[in-house]
Design a protein that fits this description.
Blueprint: E1 2-3, E2 8-14, E3 17-22, E4 32-37, E5 40-44, H1 50-62, E6 66-72, H2 77-80, E7 90-93, H3 95-104, H4 111-114, H5 119-122, E8 144-148, E9 156-161, E10 166-174, H6 186-199, E11 203-208, H7 214-235, H8 241-247, H9 261-273
Parallel strand pairs: 5-6, 6-7, 10-11
Antiparallel strand pairs: 1-2, 2-3, 3-4, 4-5, 8-9, 9-10
Length: 285
C-alpha cells in the first residue's frame, strides 16, 4: 500500500490492478481503479476533481503504463468530475449516464451546495461528459461489463474480471460507508446486489470505502432490504413513519460512516413503494 496524497492510497487488488482508495469514502471521496494490460491502462471512474485524478494518472505513469480509456460507472460528479484530467483519453459511459452528465454541464457551481467541503474547487469545475459508448467497448484482460438499470442510480456499470474473480463495482457497492439511494430504486439495488453475489467475487472494489469481500456486500444488501421492508410496512398501513424508521435493522452496517443517510434512503424507498417514481426518469422530482 502506498500513499498517493494525503487523501488517496494505492491498494493492489490483483496483478496489474490497483485501486486509488479516496479517503474514508464519505461524500465526494469516490474511488478510482486502474487495470493494466501491458502498457495500456483502463481507468474505472475519475474521482471528483481533476487534482484527484492527476494523482491517479501519476501512479499510472509511475507503473510505466498509459491510460487508453476512462470508464464512468454512473453520472455522479464524484465519479466523472476528474474526467478532464485525462486529456486526449477517450471517456465512455452508459448512454443514460452520458445524457445526464451533458445535462449537468453549465450547472457545476450547484455541486458545491451538495458537497460543501469542495465548494471552492467545484465553482471552477468544467465537466467533461463521457461518450455514450460503454456498452460497445472491448475491455482488457477478459473484463466484462455488468449493467444495472437502475440500481444506485438510473444506470450503473460494474466491471467483472472472472479469471481474477475481481469486481470493480462502482457505487453498486459501498463499504464502511452507509449508501445513498436518492437517485435510484432500492428494490432494484437489492436485486443488483443479489446478482453481484451470484457472480462469486472474491474481491470487490466499491465506489466508496475500502476494498471489500462478499460478506461486506451481503451486509449492504441486508441493510437495504430492511429499509425497503420498513417502507412497505408504512405503505401497507401497518406502521407509522416513526415506527417503521425504528424498525430498520442497521446492525449489518453498524459503525459505518454517514448513518444519517438512513432517513433519506427510507424516504426514497417509500416513494418507490407508493408508486411515485418513474423508473424511466428517476431524476424527476
Amino acid at each position: 500500500m502506498r500513499n498517493l496524497s494525503s487523501v488517496q492510497r494505492v491498494v493492489d487488488v490483483a496483478d496489474g490492478m490497483f485501486a486509488a482508495i479516496n479517503g474514508d469514502g464519505s461524500l465526494g471521496l469516490a474511488n478510482s481503479v486502474v487495470v493494466q494490460d501491458g502498457r495500456s491502462a483502463l481507468v474505472v471512474d475519475a474521482t471528483l476533481l481533476p487534482r484527484m485524478a492527476d494523482d491517479v494518472r501519476a501512479e499510472i505513469d509511475r507503473r510505466g503504463a498509459r491510460a487508453e480509456l476512462v470508464l464512468n460507472t454512473h453520472h455522479h460528479a464524484d465519479h466523472v468530475g476528474g474526467n478532464a484530467a485525462f486529456a486526449g483519453v477517450r471517456v465512455a459511459g452508459h448512454p443514460v449516464t452520458a445524457q445526464i452528465v451533458r445535462r449537468m454541464m453549465g450547472h457545476e457551481s450547484e455541486l458545491g451546495r451538495l458537497m460543501p467541503a469542495f465548494a471552492g474547487e467545484l465553482t471552477g469545475l468544467e465537466l467533461r461528459p463521457p461518450e455514450p459508448t460503454a456498452l460497445l467497448e472491448a475491455l482488457p484482460r477478459g473484463g466484462r461489463l455488468v449493467c444495472f438499470t437502475p440500481a444506485h442510480s438510473p444506470a450503473d456499470l460494474a466491471v467483472w474480471f472472472p479469471a481474477e474473480r475481481v469486481l470493480l463495482a462502482g457505487d453498486v457497492c459501498f463499504n464502511r460507508v452507509v449508501p445513498l439511494a436518492v437517485h435510484g430504486m432500492v428494490s432494484a439495488w437489492v436485486s443488483a446486489l443479489d446478482a453481484v453475489l451470484a457472480l462469486g467475487p472474491v474481491t470487490i472494489v466499491p465506489g466508496h470505502g475500502p476494498v471489500a469481500g462478499p460478506g461486506d456486500v451481503a451486509a449492504l444488501r441486508a441493510y437495504l432490504a430492511s429499509v425497503l421492508a420498513a417502507a412497505k410496512r408504512v405503505a401497507a398501513g401497518g406502521a407509522s413513519m416513526l415506527e417503521a424508521l425504528g424498525s430498520i435493522d442497521s446492525g449489518p452496517v453498524d459503525g459505518w460512516i454517514e448513518p444519517e443517510r438512513t432517513g433519506l434512503n427510507f424516504r426514497r424507498a417509500l416513494r418507490e413503494v407508493r408508486g411515485e417514481l418513474d423508473r424511466t426518469n428517476l431524476l424527476a422530482r
